[in-house]
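PROTEIN ENTRY
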Amino acid sequence: MRITLIAFLLFCAHTLSAQSDIPATKPLDIKAEPDKEGTSKPVLSPPALPKKLPEYDLGLNTGRGEVRMLPDRDLKQAGHDLVLKPNLGESEKGKSDRHFGDMYLGDFKTSSKFVGIVCRDHEFVDGDRVRIFVNGEVVEHNILLTGAYKGLNLELDKGFNRLDFEALNQGSTGPNTAQVDVYDDTGKLIYSNKWLLSTGSKASLIIVKDE
């Protein structure tokens, strides 16, 4: 019994001595240091938005209704108001002091399979226009004659091939003037001539294809 009591007392004394070895804790007292200039820096705030945003005119509000994203059948095609006069050039007949009737430009033979026929306004370029016929059928309805050559390639039939150049107008000065050149299938110039026509007159050319 005595031995047990002594052991208990020794255990209590050892525990008290062990607790005395733990250092005492001291709470930290952290204080914010004042600004060196004595004033605190202000906190940044976002810029203030305007009370009313400015309005921009994008040209969409034209008073014709809202913008339509789907096809509108009311839209008009380019040139819808263009009026074509069926009697183009008729009023010009009286502008010239002299009337130039139909012209025969002549004929020639060739063994070429096809020919290139080109024409241009060889004088003052004033808006002359012509229609071209081959053996009575229209192959070019309306060619504006400029300073540059314009025309077509023509595959020749065996025998006679007739070309007619009809003056659709007389331009701004009159008469309808042009130079016509014909080239064979090798690019060689085989014929050249000129015409002076009043509105409605024709210049005719015969090309004979050899066997």
Q: What stands out?
A: Residues 123 and 195 are 11 Å apart (CA to CA). Confidence is low (pLDDT under 50) at residues 82-94.
